[in-house]
Amino acid sequence: MEPAEIIQHSGGAIGAAWLMIALPLVGAAILLLGGRRTDRFGHLLGVLMAVASFAVAALSFVQLLGLAPGERRRGIELYDFVPGLAKVGLLVDPLSISFCLLITGVGSLIHIYSIGYMAHDPNRRRFFAYLNLFVAAMLLLVLADNYVALFVGWEGVGLASYLLIGFWQHKPSAATAAKKAFIVNRVGDFGLLIGLFTIFATFHTLAFNDVFANASKASSGTLTAIGLLLLVGACGKSAQLPLQSWLLDAMEGPTPVSALIHAATMVTAGVYLIVRSGPIYQGAETAQLVVTIVGVATLLAGAIIGTAKDDIKKALAGSTMSQIGYMVLAAGIGPAGYAFAIAHLITHGFFKADMFLGAGSVMHAMNDEVDMRKYGALRKVMPVTFATFAIGYLAIIGFPLLSGYFTKDGIIETVMEHNAVLGWLAVLGAGITGFYMSRLVFMTFFGAKRWEPTAHPHESPAVMTWPLVILSVGAIGLGAFLVLGNRFMTFLAPAVGAPEEMPSFHPFSLTGLATLALVAVGAVFAWFRYGAAEVPAVAPRGSFLTTFARRDLYGDALNEALFMRPGQWLTRLAVFFDNRGVDGLVNGLAAGIGGTSGRLRRIQTGFVRSYALSIFLGAAILAGAWLVVGNL
Amino acid sequence: MNGTIEAPTIEYALLAPMLVVFGAAIVGVLVEAFAPRYLRSAIHLPLTLLSLAGAFALAVWQALKGVPTKPAAMGAVAVDGPALFIWGTILVLAFVSVLLIKDEEHFVGSAAALPGSAEEEQSLVERAAHTEVYPLLLFAVGGMLLFPAANDLLVAFVALEVMSLPLYLLCGLARRRRLLSQEAAVKYFLLGAFSSAFFLYGTALLYGYAGSVDLAKINLALGSVGGQDTLLYIGAAMLGVGLLFKIGAAPFQAWKPDVYQGSPTPITALMASGTLVAAFGALLRVFWVGLGGLDWDWRPVFYGVAILTMVVGAILAITQTDIKRMLAYSSIAHGGFLLVGVIATGSAAQNTAALSGLLFYLVAYGFTTVGAFAVVTMVRDAGGEAWHLSRWAGLGKRSPLLAGTFAFFLLAFAGIPLTSGFFGKYAVFQAAVSGGALPLVIVGVVASAVAAFFYVRVIVLMFFSDPAADGPSVVLPSRGTAAVVGIAALATVVLGVFPQPLLDLAHSAAQSLFVR
Amino acid sequence: MTTHYLVLSALLFAIGGVGVLVRRNAIVVFMCVELMLNACNLAFVTFARQNGNLDGQLIAFFVMIVAAAEVVIGLAIIVTIFRTRRSASVDDASLLKY
How does it sit in the membrane (chain C) (predicted)? Predict the structure, then answer.
């Protein structure tokens, strides 16, 4: 089934979809410009804007459901900047509205949670301003009907992410992490930008509608090039290999940020880009293959990193990488995988946000301690956090009938039909997930108390636990709701297309059973290592493999050896030539202009008679020129 | 010549906007003569604002009723599409500039008193005020309205003087830095009179050439009169001197920085916006209508003038350390960009495109420049407005909103997309490219890039430098000043984001070109 | 025949122009500007004669009136600056520069 036509729309909630972006943007502007005056109500305003945006998204969703499936792609002309120059509009279709609901829904919950989490931070208002800015930019990214506006949103979320990772600038590690994220993302953005240039050179437009309509006419070589360049962008934003290294460091940011930006929403932008650009990838098999390989490699790498981390947030970050790897893998398959990729993205948004916020709740209780070796036995003191976290945990390892079970197994089975090698690797990844997630839960909530003497854990306030409860409800039921009866696939089909034959979900297929078995093995192994056994307070040296995983698979070392050192040499070389050549030229030019200016302004002597002379001479020159030109 | 002189017919309705302004100015003089001192300000301000608003309404009404196709007042004044558009622009800009005027803050209490003398002390004690500012300003605005509509050179000369003479006086009335203000007045006056003598001599020579000062008749004569080309060329050049002086085109730009710096800032705002618009209107009319048949001759000359103006404006602005002088050089550079549009003549469609681009540019630039000068009035220290750029360091940290607005105006001057300045430049340069003036556009773009450097320099200074310990304070703006900044910022945003409506309006105003 | 008058007018204009450039006293500078205007008037009247219409003569009257207005304004400004600086030299008024 091919994607439906885009119909121009006006009126109703969909017609007002720009409000979704405008409201949080206004919120951010008020909070940033208002300064200290808005300190008192800043957090409430931020929450209000996020919730209002969610309301618009929900109303638009309802209105969209009221339309016939074939008419659910609505284009909204927003702004026509002089006909023929540039045109900006929004595209509300099943794909973008799914993202909108996720971003504003989970975003609102995280806003609410942050009221409690950031209660003691003097800069809480600024935090909410950045969160609002992020929501606005992310919504622009998914609602744009052309690549330019998408890119603006793309850079906007990058900026918000940078600001939020470095929110606690007083910590050098946070400042460094922010810079690292910024730089690594620039690499990806550069790829995306070149991809956009290539698109423009090929199609002479950047509007989705025109590009996709003509995609089949372009040569497959061009499409492959575009696809790979877009993939570079997606890798940067979604922390896929080889641009994954920033995500683990990004955990320096406040935990709600990790939940919202670095788990639930922003890091999924790459998946969105690949799915949205489907018509391009469908003409470029090589690009699709590369996408699936990147996905599989990342899902394994992330899982392995997750097994070795003692920092609760970094373990979760590894898991995020891994889960996004699943999504990218599914997105690389084509229309058959799109629905599962997005469905997993949504359920992941819920259960991962749930677990991140749960981790935040634990840290809140443990004086911001992140080392799991200093946790243990927290299930009794923090019952709500434990219960909700456990639900998220069961969902992510694919415990039957919870969210992750449906969406992740959906991906694995689809991949298995597509390519058995990739499929079995995905199953292996699921097994490792079972191990490291169980390890995390056992080290945190079970076993003996290994608390620091100063720690007095307590349950978090209601403003923090209620979002956890709501998110865990999503983690329980959303998967079944979306996947059973192909509900989500049918809904999404008008936007991204769907295979001719809808897949049917076998709860206990061979693959499903194998996955479950492997997950169970992983979990049991984890129980014996970390649940039943004593957890040493200092991490044992471990084997080569452990070190390998702890050092993020030597990702940073690799970066250093492959890019940083040669980069430094290259920079030195460039600086050398720059100083001698280019800079000499530019500086010379600037100095020349400046010097000319400095000399010329001496002509302006301040004497009225010299001005009169310039007029007199000017008149003579003018008359002379006229006579010369006229008599030619 | 049979001994009887026929009474001229005058279309009073067509000239109504101008007459309202002049009438209000005369009433203002009477108020000065008869109303008690304490009442004058209270009468002047509403009178001035109402007359400007009324004149604007009349101009709009005229435009809605239909643009006349023949010159009015026996061929002396042409109220056509471009004239009405320019009138509307000048009236709005004048209205906004008047809002900036708070006589007790910007204008001297007693201009005749020596600075530092007992008389000045006394005038301060008495809270004396030169409320003549308002009628003078109205006379100047009346002249600005007449100048671009003048369809013969005599009327143009009279309008030029009616516009300039009150401005000479107004320049000398600044409350602070009296010496600079007086110097600005003297310089502007002497140079202005000097240049208008050139204009008049040019008029005389063209009269000798064509036997008439009527622009249409001069244009007719271009084809038929032979053997007197020298008269024609020198006459046209002299006319050009007078007009280019008012625009501030190089090499006639020298007065601009000095006068802009010394004058009271609200008057600078009016000169930088209203006078520039009026002078460009007159330049276009004289050269497109009166000397339209000669464009092969004047285009190369203006080509050189435009290049020189852009280069001088952009380069000299770099080393300026005074905010008002910098804005003056920026205004010179913008005059050069506008001249690029004046040259872009060709077929009728080409002329329409160039003219509508120019009209848009004038509106966009007028608003932005008034806004920028309004911001200048608000940054003060003990000695009055803080003009030196070093005093503006770190302003962004103290008053982010004001500094942000000013930065926005500067970006509009630089022509960044999504500001009105971008589209003005775009329209003019595009017209110039299709008019075959590509080299000129390249120079324009390079000059814009150089100019962008010093705009950005000010922004960097405001936001990334540490504020001086005894830096200037930002006064709480009066309602008028706040309104001016708000209106200017709004216009700059709206024209940058939704330029189409105004562009359509400019296009329809330019459709009929100038009546002959 | 009328050419002589035109030459005279051009000479007067040039003398006025050069006078503006070389004289320091603001009043004299201003008088030179007036001389230029009067040179224009001479040219207008001559051309009126040459062209056989009255426009030029009429214009001369307009110019006189404008010149008179200019004198009023000009003297006011020059007298003010003279009172402040005790000098009518235009070269002394050179604070605004560069």
Answer: Multi-pass membrane protein
